[in-house]
Amino acid sequence: IDSNFDEYDGTGWDGGATVLYGDTPASDSDWSCRPNAPPIAAKVLETSKTPGPVNRERAKEMAMSDYYMINKQVLVVKKDNAADYADPEKIKSVKIAVESGSAGEDAALAVTDEKNVVSAELQLDALLEVLASTADAAIIDGVMAAYLTNKADSDFNKLVIVEGALDVEDEYYSIAFRKGSDLAVSVNDIIKGMKADGTVKKIADKYGLADVLVG
Prior knowledge:
8 helices, 30% helix, five-stranded mixed sheet, alpha+beta
């Protein structure tokens, strides 16, 4: 393990996989195990290559690193339609795209009927559903949404977060490890060192994520 956390992606550490997997980029990982991470729990993998928000199920099945970033589920729509969502009742009748099995899906089911929920494989796919007008809105991680909708060279900047549209609690990003693994302790030490020497703040500033860092 080294301390080569070098970039963020929309979910947190883009360089996080470098610490655990050499040159394997986090964005190429297959987190089909996201809700319960069975490969990790079954000891096939030592750790997930992609960080994600902690929930009770994951915490029971896996060892977790310290929290490093705050997240919240947010509603994302086309900028041209954003004014329509000033009415909080609007969300109850529109098609909402979500990543299947995600916290976003839970948030969608809390505000609308299951028939209005469009399941997608990934959060990016949920946003693509909105761009393609096959869904009216998407509910995804706020950290990822803020990063993508502010990218000037991306079609995602045609989308916008509807602030305050969802009544949801804060979530926290962590890195998951096989239950009983001692890697969580090592990674925590690395992250603490990077916070102390200013590396984490420098990376967060670069990607506009300083406001959601923990500690």
